[in-house]
Design goal:
Layout (H helix, E strand, L loop, with lengths): L3 H10 L16 H13 L10 H50 L1
Helix pairs in contact: 2-3
């Protein structure tokens, strides 16, 4: 039989690490986007050639997907900032409501 308390001991003895000061690397940089866009532009001449058309189209698709990944990262960052702003506003409204009720 599985002893659930055995797992609790592992968590109780583990060190707690603070990663709040850790800055992660971006998934995609503007340099990545520019490189993909340049590669797509350089391969445009191959769009009319059946031997290179697929590679040229793949380069264009890669440039679009790289840009989308960059934008997606920005959307996530803004979303986290918006959630933090909402939390701060709720706390502010809560404190304001409580102090007015005491008056």
């Amino acid at each position: 039989m599985l002893d659930i308390n055995a797992y609790a001991d592992v968590y109780e003895t583990e060190d707690i690490y603070d990663f709040s000061g850790y800055e992660s690397e971006p998934l995609v940089t503007m340099d990545d986007i520019l490189a993909e866009e340049k590669r797509a532009k350089d391969m445009e001449v191959g769009l009319d050639n059946p031997m290179t058309r697929r590679s040229a189209l793949e380069a264009q698709l890669s440039a679009v997907l790289t840009r989308d990944r960059y934008d997606e990262t920005k959307v996530h960052e803004l979303g986290y900032q918006l959630n933090e702003a909402r939390i701060q506003r709720r706390v502010h409204d809560y404190i304001k409501d409580i102090t007015h009720k005491e008056d």
